[in-house]
Amino acid sequence: MLANMRIFHCPVDGTRSPITALTWCCPVCRGPWDLDFTPARGVGVNALSGRIDSLWRYKEFLPLDTSAISLGEGRTPLVPLTDTVSAKLDYLMPTLSFKDRGAVMLAELARRLGPDRVVADSTGNAGTSVAAYCARAGLPCTVYVPEGTSPKKTEQIQAHGARLVAVPGGREATALAARAAADEPGVFYASHVFNPFFLHGTKTYVYELWEDLGGRLPDALAVPVGNGTLLLGAALAVSELHALGLIETRPRLIAVQAEAVSPLAAAFHAAADDLLPATPPAPTLAEGIAIPRPPRARQILAAVRASGGTFLTVPEDAIREAQRDLAARGLYVETTGVACWAAVRGGGDAVGGSVVVPLCGAGLKTGMAG
Ligand SMILES: [Zn+2]
Prior knowledge:
Blueprint: E1 7-9, E2 16-18, E3 34-35, E4 78-80, E5 85-88, H1 100-113, E6 117-121, H2 125-137, E7 141-146, H3 151-159, E8 163-167, H4 170-182, E9 187-189, H5 197-202, H6 204-212, E10 220-224, H7 229-243, E11 252-258, H8 263-269, H9 297-306, E12 310-314, H10 316-328, H11 339-345, E13 355-358
Parallel strand pairs: 5-13, 6-7, 6-9, 7-8, 10-11, 10-13, 11-12
Antiparallel strand pairs: 1-2, 1-3, 4-5
This protein binds zinc ion (ZN).
C-alpha cells in the first residue's frame, strides 16, 4: 500500500517517527515535522511535455508519485501585470485556492494510511480544500474554524460533507481544539502546518514557474506569509532544483504580511532567529495570513534570509486598493490573496527585477472589502 514509506524527523531535536504512526508532531518538543525526502533524480523541462496536465506531472520530485483522488489541481496560468511583475492565478484550483496543492498530498497520504477519521483546522481555505479531497477519498472529516470565518468558506466546507466546528477565541484557540482531537487514536491530523507533505505539495507552485519560464525562475518570488506553507514549499523547490543542477540562480523570497498581524516581519527586521514576545494582533482583511504565533517561524525566517530576500508589510488601505486594482484588471481575488500585489506595487527598492506574485484565493470566497 505505502510504496513510498517515509520517515518524519524533527528539525529541532532530531526525533524520528515513521509516518504510519500518525504522530502529528514531535513528541519531544511538540513542534512540526520535516520529511526525509530528497528527489533522487530530476528531469529537465523538455521531458515534461505530454505528461498529465496537473501537478502530478512532477512525480520525480514528489514524495507520493501518484494520486487516486486528484481533481486536476495545479498548472495555473501566469499572467503579466506590468513589464516586470506577473501574477500566477492560483485561485483557479478545484476549491478556488492554492491550498489544493498541499491538501491533495495530505488526503492521498491519509487514504493510504486508512485512519478512522481526518481532522483539520484553518481560517477557511485549507479546511475547505481538505474537506473536498477527503470527500473524494471517502474519508470522514472534521474541520475546526475560528468563529467569524467568512460564511462562503464555511458553506463550502459543509457542502463537501465535512463536520464543521466553529471555535470561539480566534485562530490559536481553533488550533488548540483541533490538536486535542488530533491526539485521539486513529485520527489523521491533516495539518497544513505540522505535516510536511503539505509543503511538498505547495512546492509545485515553483516547479510550474520553472517549467513555464523554460527552466529558470524569476529574480524574486513574492509570497504571502501566515503559517508560511507556500513560502516554505517555494524554498524547498528552489533548493531541490538547485541541488539537482536544474537552475543556476536562486530567486529572492519576498515575504508579505499584513501590517496588523506581522510577527515574522517584526522578528526579521529585529535580526531575530525566532518570534519576539507577542504583541496583540489587530483585525485584518487578510484573514488567511493572520497568524500570531506560526509554529514554523524559525524555518521561515531562515529561508527568507538564506535567499537574500526580505519581509514587507501592507496596511489595510493598501489591501483594499490592491483588491480593487486587480478586479479592475479582470482578476477577482480574495482579500488575503491580494496582499502580495499590494506589497509589490508599493514595494520600491526592495522589489527589483522580475517578480511573480501568487493570487491565492478567489474573490467569491470573501467578496470585496468594504
Ligand atoms: Zn522536536
